[in-house]
Each structure stands twice: as structure tokens, then as C-alpha cells.
Write a structure and sequence with these properties.
Blueprint (H helix, E strand, L loop, with lengths): L1 H27 L5 H11 L5 H4 L5 H4 L15 H10 L6 H13 L13 H36 L4 H15 L2 H12 L23 H20 L2 H17 L2 H8 L4 H19 L1 H11 L2 H6 L5 H11 L2 H29 L5 H5 L1
Length: about 350
């Protein structure tokens, strides 16, 4: 097993490098880089170069850069454009920039955001509470509800209970998360009906003045709606996966033998079937958590005014904030690849009969 883990760890290096190469190359062909973003912002604020060009001179006439490669840069002094390129490191060839970026990332130096004036690490840490909240609670709730429900559906397969619960979870799966979030706001957050839950944020404005119990209650009060909205679609997949796993195991010979020995149905289900049936479900918990953690819906964060990693990545992509874009991509890819190894270890921990070393050989 040690050799298998070592191979998987070594495989992270080329995989991570390939991810970064592909994304860095694609970004080079996308218009509207950081320099163009700055130009657009400045021109939208009016004649901001009056002082730069000297008094009230017309910048368009006195400092025009007719050969500029940047859309909308005409009329701006070429020295200013060159200064912006140097500031963002865009005056260097792409290969040199990529090699320098990877070297910095190997030393866990992810740089500073172009526009937020904060380090990438600080930005990620600031957004973590929202993403951890959505990821952890959504995954836990989905598992706590879906596993017992899936087991009961397997035991009562084909019954009326199985039929109507299948209809409910499939309907829930078909509802987009953002639409469900809006419905929750309208119904329970002061829309057209009841104002039971707060409209935005993870905590109240007076959170610092609350007691320890009050802080916990306030936090739980705020996360009810966003967690429900982010986890609604996961119930269907996990419930049906649990049901099908149990159905597959219930029909096997060792279950028939256990029943023939006179063991109770509860002992058969939870003493014999559960461990084998839950192998896929339980071992997949790390990957499920990371999936919700990093893939939390931008729309749900926006609807509930939550400032998480989803909005951070979206804003970085729209604003062409390259340090945030590539820094978070590197961090999340590294964590995702590591979680893949942890998932394999979970398989072995739950079922020692699994030996990836022999399978690889």
C-alpha cells in the first residue's frame, strides 16, 4: 500500500502541471486582460489623465498611442500602458511568466491580487467560513437523511413508500438550486409570506455582543436556508446510490445464509449488509464534501449575500485577476488530487480486502 500511495503522490506533480499549463495557455487567448480592465475602469471614470498629460491638454491628441494592442487604449500615453504591463508582469514572454509562476507556487508563494491589494492566501482564508459552512453542513445533512432513507427504500423496495419517496427526491433533484433558493427567500425570508429566517449573511450585526449560546444559535439561524438550497440536489443521488447498494447486497448468498441461521432482520442489515453496501457511499464522503466545498453555487452565494470561494473565483475570472485565478486553481487542484488518495485509503479502511497494490500490479 505504501508503494501505491507513493506512486499516487508522484502522479500529482504531472497532473497538476498539466492542469496549470492548459489553463494558462487558454487564458492567453482570452481578450480583456488586466491591462484592458484597468483601462476600461479609468475611461469609465472620465478624463483621469488630464494631470498626467499636463493641465487640460487633450490626451487623445497629445499622447495618442494609435498602435496600441489593447482595445480602448487609444488616447492613452504609451508610457502608461508600458508601466501597467510591467506592474502586472505582462511585459515578459508567456513562457517566462509561467515558469516564474510555477516556481513561486512550489514555494507556496501565490502573490497578491491585482485589484484587491491582498495576498491570495489571505483572500482564500477570508472566504473559507462561507464555503466550509455550505460544504460541511450540506454534506452531513445529505448523508444523515439519505442513508437511512435509502436503506428503508431498499428494504421496502416496490412498496408505496418506495414509490412516493422516489417521486419526491427526483422532483427535488430536478429543481435548480438557485430556483429553490429564491423560493425559500420568498416563503421564509420576508418575501411575500413569512419572515422567519434572515435574508443575508452568516451572522447578525450584533454577533460580537451575543453570548456563546447566542452566537451558535444566530449562526445556525442564518445557515438554514443556504444549506437547504445547496444540498437539495444531493439527496436524490445519495439516496438512490444507498438503495441500489443495499439491494445488490441483500440478494447475495451470505445474506441468505445469515437469515437461515435465525439472525434478526436488523442484525442482518446492520451487522452484515451495511458494511459492504456502504463501502461506496461512506468512502466517497471526502470527495462529496470537497465537491460541495469548492463547487458551491455562485448563484446561491449571491442570492443569500454570502461572500465565499465561489464568488471569489467568479469575480477573479471576470476581472482577469490572474494571481487569484491561478493561485486558487493550483490550491484547489492540489487539494482535489490529495482527496482522491484519501478516498482510496477510506476504501481500504472500510474494507481491508481491497488491495490497490495487487490491483496495480
Amino acid at each position: 500500500m505504501g508503494a501505491y500511495i507513493l506512486r499516487r503522490l508522484l502522479l500529482i506533480i504531472p497532473t497538476l502541471l498539466g492542469i496549470m499549463i492548459i489553463n494558462f495557455t487558454l487564458v492567453q487567448f482570452v481578450p480583456g486582460g488586466p491591462v484592458e480592465q484597468v483601462i476600461a475602469r479609468m475611461q469609465g471614470e472620465g478624463d483621469v489623465f488630464g494631470g498626467f498629460a499636463g493641465g487640460g491638454e487633450d490626451v487623445t491628441l497629445s499622447g495618442a498611442d494609435e498602435s496600441s494592442d489593447y482595445l480602448g487604449a487609444r488616447g492613452l500615453p504609451p508610457e502608461f500602458i508600458a508601466e501597467l504591463e510591467a506592474q502586472y508582469g505582462l511585459d515578459k514572454p508567456p513562457l517566462e511568466r509561467f515558469v516564474g509562476m510555477i516556481w513561486d507556487y512550489m514555494r507556496f508563494d501565490f502573490g497578491e491580487s491585482y485589484f484587491k491589494k491582498q495576498s491570495v492566501i489571505d483572500l482564500v482564508v477570508d472566504k473559507l467560513p462561507v464555503s466550509v459552512t455550505l460544504g460541511l453542513w450540506s454534506t452531513l445533512i445529505a448523508y444523515l437523511i439519505s442513508i437511512p432513507l435509502g436503506i428503508r427504500k431498499a428494504v421496502r423496495d416496490g412498496s408505496r413508500f418506495d414509490s412516493w419517496t422516489s417521486g419526491v427526491i427526483i422532483a427535488a433533484y430536478a429543481i435548480p438550486g438557485f430556483l429553490f433558493a429564491i423560493m425559500l427567500l420568498v416563503l421564509f425570508a420576508g418575501g411575500s409570506y413569512w419572515q422567519i429566517f434572515p435574508l443575508r449573511g452568516l451572522t447578525s450585526d450584533n454577533w460580537d455582543q451575543l453570548s456563546a449560546f447566542g452566537k451558535v444559535a444566530d449562526y445556525l439561524w442564518h445557515i438554514v436556508l443556504p444549506v437547504l438550497a445547496s444540498s437539495i440536489a444531493g439527496f436524490a443521488t445519495l439516496t438512490l446510490l444507498t438503495k441500489n447498494s443495499f439491494l445488490d447486497e441483500i440478494g447475495k448468498q451470505y445474506v441468505i445464509t445469515a437469515r437461515a441461521k435465525g439472525l434478526s432482520e436488523k442484525r442482518v442489515l446492520y451487522g452484515h449488509v451495511f458494511r459492504n453496501a456502504m463501502l461506496i457511499v461512506v468512502a466517497g464522503f471526502p470527495a462529496a464534501f470537497i465537491g460541495v466545498f469548492f463547487g458551491a453555487s455562485i448563484l446561491i452565494e449571491t442570492i443569500f449575500s454570502l461572500d465565499g470561494l465561489g464568488r471569489l473565483g467568479f469575480e477573479a475570472a471576470i476581472g482577469r485577476d490572474y494571481p487569484v485565478m491561478f493561485g486558487t486553481l493550483f490550491i484547489f487542484s492540489l487539494i482535489g488530487l490529495t482527496v482522491g488518495i484519501i478516498t482510496d485509503l477510506m476504501y481500504v479502511l472500510i474494507d481491508p480486502r481491497i488491495d490497490f497494490e495487487k490491483r496495480a500490479g
